[in-house]
Amino acid sequence: MTMVERSPDSLAASEDGSETGHATATLDTVHDLLRNRILNGQLPPGAVVSQAHLARDLGVSRSPIREACRLLEREGLLISRHNHRVQVADFLLDDLEELYASRLVLEPLALTVRVSSLTTSELDDMAAALEDMRHSAEQRDYDRFTVPHNRFHSLLYSDTSGRLLRQISQLSDHASRYRRVYMTQTPSAWDVVMAHDTKILQALSRGDATAAGAELARHLAATALSIMALMDPLHDPRLLRAALRQTCH
Fold this sequence. Notes:
mainly alpha
């Protein structure tokens, strides 16, 4: 069983997991800490851990741990087990396909509306992020790569708000677990991702909303199909194909 490592800024705790020292940890703080550790693989898919261990590790009482776990269950990132234990949701083909089919519908939609409001400064910021991505890709440094990659994609939706942005953000976050596997286990992934993002920026620079949306859809589909091939080469991605046809009709 894989356990999380104690963070340098984790809150102090007594032996029974009660709060001491910085005892003002909020539910949001605990939720964000656990969520980030799931998404970045510190708590890997399938790992089973007790709420008591998490409380000791984060230096908080069991109450915010319990509530944070409930929130993460609703998000589909944790599964409740017996004896106050939780399991990190495993990788599942259906989950992967639903995630990316949903992204294929929502993200190109948001981007095509976004194109007309993009500024020269924002395009320059995207170009700079792309260059940072390129340097990290050359070093095959995934953790460093994710920072400009996330910055690049956040700029695609920087004027999107409300329910649409919340859905896009959550789907992208959940997909990050799968994306890490794709990038670190598929040697060609680095070049493929860079090529797609470069074409997206080129289309945006021309003000071509249709081409930008279509390229983003192909980018998402290529990532999903590559991960599916790693998980089950015989899987028939009917839902993903339908979403791609709807976006790139």
